[in-house]
């Protein structure tokens, strides 16, 4: 499927996701099984050591995971399904700091039936940098598609 760029727009899954809205997530691109998002690290996202709180990095990656798992435009007959996390793990590789822009790139690696496997890479760069920056964390998510309630 062709990539759909939605810079400045909100993925439908985020319309009522107040945590992701609070984080200031910007959706850069989404397509079937892929999402790229970014946000700027603010003071209230830091831990006692002055670096990004691990929970913030995790929540950010989890939002990218959710967007990669759930299409912007569900196929006919799929409107009543949602895809959620069945399990995840994260590896923190380097710290990120206030004012840096972090970018998450989520990609589906495999899907079979109602289950999927996704890898999300998180990068940090100084504000204004052209490239996404250094790899700071890797998140692996296992998904499950279930009926919407």
Poorly predicted runs: 1-8
Structural class based on helices, strands and sheet pairing: mainly beta
Strand count, sense and barrel status of the largest sheet are: 7 strands, antiparallel
Overall domain count: 1
Rg over CA atoms, rounded to whole Å, is 15 Å
Proportion of strand residues: 35-45%
CATH architecture: Roll
- Note the overall shape: globular
Distance between the termini: 28 Å
Number of strands: 7
| CATH level-four homologous superfamily name | Hotdog Thioesterase
Helix % is 10-25%
Residue-averaged pLDDT? 91
Strand order of the largest sheet: 1-2-3-5-6-7-4
How many H/I helices? 2
CATH fold type: Thiol Ester Dehydrase, Chain A
H/E element sequence: EHEEHEEEE
Quickly name the level 1 CATH class. Alpha Beta
Q: Can you offer a commentary on this structure?
A:
The protein is mainly β and about 150 residues long. Helix content is about 15%, strand content about 45%. The chain is built from 2 helices and 7 strands. A 7-stranded antiparallel sheet has the order 1-2-3-5-6-7-4, covered by helices on one side. Mean pLDDT is about 90; it is low at about 1-10.
Summary?
This protein is mainly beta. The protein has helices at about 20-25, 55-70, and strands spanning about 5, 25-30, 35-40, 80-90, 100-110, 115-125, 135-145.
Walk me through the topology.
Elements: E1 4-5, H1 18-23, E2 26-31, E3 34-40, H2 54-69, E4 81-92, E5 101-112, E6 115-125, E7 134-147
Antiparallel strand pairs: 1-2, 2-3, 3-5, 4-7, 5-6, 6-7
